[in-house]
Amino acid sequence: MAITLVNPSGLPEIDVYRQVSIATGSKLVFVAGQVAWDSDGVTVGEGDLSAQVEQCYLNIATALAGVGASFADVAKLTVHVVDWTPDKMPLLLEGISRAAAKLGETPLAPATLLGVAALDVPEHLVEIEATAIID
């Protein structure tokens, strides 16, 4: 495994991610922003942030598996949420939790959460991109 996740002393511990990832692998993997499309390009969970977050994480897992990687290899996630407000955090966490249960692993890589005005398709509420490191 090319990624070690840590919470250095002096920084707050966040339950849903680690503050720092240390990469030792030799290949960078950039996963394009994933939205809540199924394999047929149909939006999953229209109007349901949790369902869309879950689908985004499942899509990232599929992309990673396609190149021999998993969430254990993810160094950084960037999450874009339409019309973000802090009261949406439980919905975001629920989607991550549901995806983690299906995947059998909890994505803990450092993450940046950004509120955006809109995404490519009006039905999309979230888009998540990943950077991974593999040997």
UniProtKB/TrEMBL annotation:
Gene3D superfamilies: RutC-like. It comes from Nonomuraea cavernae. Pfam families: Ribonuc_L-PSP (PF01042). InterPro entries: RutC-like_sf, YjgF/YER057c/UK114. It comes from the Bacteria. This is Enamine deaminase RidA.
